[in-house]
Amino acid sequence: MEALDLPKNFWTLNKEELFTELKSQGTGLSQEEVTRRQEKFGLNKIEEKKKFATLTIFIRQFKSPLIFVLIIATVLAASLGDFKDAAFIALAVIINAGLGFYQENKAERALEQLKGYITKRVRVIRAGREKEIEAENLIPGDVIYVSQGDRVSADARIIYASDLQIDEALLTGESLPVTKVVEPLQEDISLAERTNMLYSGTLVIQGFGRAVVTATGAKTEIGKIASAVADQKEGQTPLQSALQKFIFKAAGIIVLLSGLILLIAHSNGLTLLESFLIAIAVLVSAVPEGLPIVMTVVLAIGVQRLAKKNGVVRKLAAAETLGSTSVILTDKTGTLTQAKMALSRIQLFEHAQYINISEAENFLLSIALLNLESVVENPDETPEKWKIIGRPLENAVIQSAAKQNILYPDVRAGDDPILLLPFNSGNKFSASIYQLSQKHSWANHHFKNKKPYILSMVGAPEKLLEYSQFSQDRKQEVMAQIEAMATSGDRVVGIALKELSNVSDLNIRDKENYQGLRFLGTMSFRDPLRVGVGDAIREVQRAGIRVIILTGDHQGTAIAVANELGITIRPENILQGQELDKMNPDQIKARLLNLKLVARVSPQGKLKIAQALQQTGEIVAMNGDGINDAPALKEADIGIAMGSGTDVTKEVADLVLLDDNFKTIAEAVKEGRNILRNLRKAIVYLSSSIFDSIFLIAGALLVGLALPMNALQILWVNFFADSFPGIALAFEKGIDQTESCPINIRQGIFTQEMKFIVFVAGILSSACLFLMYWLFLRAGYDPATVRTFVFTTFGTYTLFLGFSMRSLKKSLFEYNPFGNSYMIGSILFGLILMAVAVYVPFFQGLFNTVDLSSWWLILSLAFSAVNIFLIELSKLVFRQVND
User: Going by DSSP bridges, is the β-strand pair 597-599/546-550 parallel, antiparallel, or unpaired?
Assistant: First the structure.
């Protein structure tokens, strides 16, 4: 094949000219040509510009108020001539920023890797076969298929369209969808007027079509202006807001305390320079420097754990919101059930004109096949080996029909419908219009009026019955039978048709055109429950989380599934979608308390339920898969998309379930709570030593003693030695049982339990350490040795505190304190750093320390044991007071 020369003004070409220019054809490119073009054009992807991303992450490390406090301390120390302290504090700030940058950048890269699990796929015709490939493998000349909910993967010229409407706001700014056409257009028109073109990144709102790819990757229109497409600014999650409030409050208190210490020191006769240096020591001592790093690590570890369980978190900070979830709104099909539907029965309601029941059933199956969007990738194989791409229900129809020797490719006869209205949860049915010909031999003797066109419909039986020829009495009789089938647990689907003489001006969305349908009958499907999903529901309920089933299925089917899952459904627990759509917010809120099931729910109904729950203070997690679910998923605190769902739902979701399984939602909530628990443990651990330095310095000033520690010693302990056990807490799991009620982070990051442990145990241990300092000096021990002892004790006891912080609720004696290998390693590393500061000559000069004898070390370890006892006592007292 000769060289391919691109680009051209493809919107001016007709179908034949288009194929000529692109050297392609309706049956697609050959495999040999695909290989050649992939080498020429490369992957269909736009390389993201990351050059400012790393700089942004690095700058973000300096935005914490706690880091601002340390920067102020650096500037003050330098301006007062204390260059050693200034240099050391500055070094700590830089190392903190470096470690924070490393961890956050690593977490962001890991998150990008996880997003790679969510592959974008597209239907393409190659070598005469329709199949599904990864979108990045598209090349110019490929013939692609797009339908409602798809994100267009490349620029393409449309060759077939059925009610195809595209949202092109990304490119043109136009908020209304654009109706697409097939006909050639004039050359000198703007991009917004090229209505026979598809553009990469735009969204299919309704309808479907086929098109020939004209540009990929950076050559697409969106690729040319990629720099203008910036990521949306994301709002803060509840944890980010709570943590920011905590940090700002802490920073304010720290600055006030430092100012107070400065005044006390100066009033005690110290020079202004000496007073400032003391204030700097307090500033440094009160800042939990490792907190920003620990937060990033805790979130990143939680996200990676969840990925191993088939849950991909798309936004790192959203992981913690999972732990606050109080209500889960879940779909039924594919989430609670396996989406492996098997046809259990066909019920005929019109069969008198057929030779026998079998012929009538075969005709009904054939009519149903006309409405499907599924693709058989290997139609030449036997039906048992077919690889079918499509919705589970559609695939079940194809497989069931094949067992009756009614083959999907034969029924369709290679034709596309003239018009197609795909199934969506709003209409609850699909509709298609075909022109019958000699190729459709199976249909020739089945129609009463021999009209050339047929309207075929598949969907909710009650919807199709509304438009049927049946009398009102007959409709009620049929509906009673359908309800009986649904109550047994079957998913019941209706099939209807109508013969048409002319379709030139017919609007397939105008429901007046449906009047007079022949309601042929129903197909009933059995969809078995997912293994273990009942246990997963009971587990989240024990954790205090409500589960509400929102389904488009019939009420009877949904009740049967709920009962099988062990969920008792009474009349007051049920809401019908039609009723919900008519209710105002106050009426919905009045029903929420007892609500367990909404049947025949619309996408707007899902949104109304989510909003009503949020207005009552609930934190809502919700799943969905269709384009119409996207607004509700975006509204929910945690939007959960099915891995098999549409592109747009996955794009707005916070969490994507690769296995579409409710068990993964339960695991996500459990991991979210684990993230919050570990973060709170880390905050308590890093805050536990704040009072020590304040007590020691303020106490020394008040009684006229020399300062027991300087700023460098405090910074060495707080940042270099103690941060690592805080990070090790990110790896904790399995010690604490799942709470019986949701963790509402909106009420604040610092719980009463945390305050009790930090303040009560912290004040007692601080007072004890100061008392020891005062007694040893009064007893006449060498001041340098006593100060080194205080520094050593301050460092070692906070390290050993890591064992106690592995659970804020359980006693140290209720779990294996050595069960976290990361904690053991971090404590050993911290002890080595403390030994270096005390015994290595260079660091002795830097920190003003001296060698300690074994007696002092034993005493230091004894104090650590006493401090752990105080922490455990405070846990016990709090539990007893609050039980």
Answer: parallel
